Amino acid sequence: QVQLVESGGGLVQPGGSLRLSCTASGISINIYYMGWYRQAPGKQRELVATITNGDGTNYADSVKGRFAISRDNAKNTVFLQMNSLKPEDTAVYYCNARYIQYPSVRDYWGQGTQVTVSS
Asked: What CA–CA distance (Å, rounded) separates 49 from 65?
């Protein structure tokens, strides 16, 4: 059974930092593309950042220069370092593991962790 468990969310003031973690069980993330997505109230889920199994990264324009995604395959964990947080970063953040073996794609999701940026 595959599980992705996020942690590290919480309440932070504007300009502050948080580090999210996502630990996987039931899979070895070294062969997976890993990502963080977020969903704010009343909005669709959107991509925040992804990291390939070759450590290539991609970021949403809204978080470039402020967020950094990384992975520790030995710990089966992916991280999202979030700096200079803004109120508009408030959302539930979800971890994603994607396995691509053309032509099929397999996705796993965590349960989400709440991030609230407010003074």
From this structure: 12
